[in-house]
Design goal:
Elements (H helix, E strand, L loop, with lengths): L14 H13 L13 H5 L23 E7 L7 E5 L3
Antiparallel strand pairs: 1-2
């Protein structure tokens, strides 16, 4: 399940802060659920429409407040304190 509100706050989050935000969502049962997780990079890429840009999502996508990029749970092979991100804006 994807949250329809694609922005979870006013400020950009670090990867660690985003993981903590998900833990908070689960504690508070955000949107009635307590099994939220950060998607891996292939799950995020599955949303992309390469024929579109800014955002690179299909015309009928269900999301509000789309951000420039999203963290994934896929850890970087080069720096294990960071993760892959999906950029949706040009």
């Amino acid at each position: 399940m994807w949250a329809r509100v694609a922005a979870r706050g006013e400020t950009l989050l670090t990867w660690r802060d985003a993981l903590e935000q998900i833990e908070k969502m689960n504690r508070e049962k955000a949107y009635g659920c307590n099994d939220w997780r950060m998607p891996h990079i292939k799950e995020l890429e599955s949303l992309v429409d390469l024929g579109e840009h800014s955002p690179a999502l299909p015309d009928a996508h269900p999301f509000f407040e789309v951000q420039n990029f999203y963290w994934s749970s896929t850890t970087s092979a080069y720096e294990t304190n960071y993760a892959w991100t999906l950029y949706l804006q040009v």
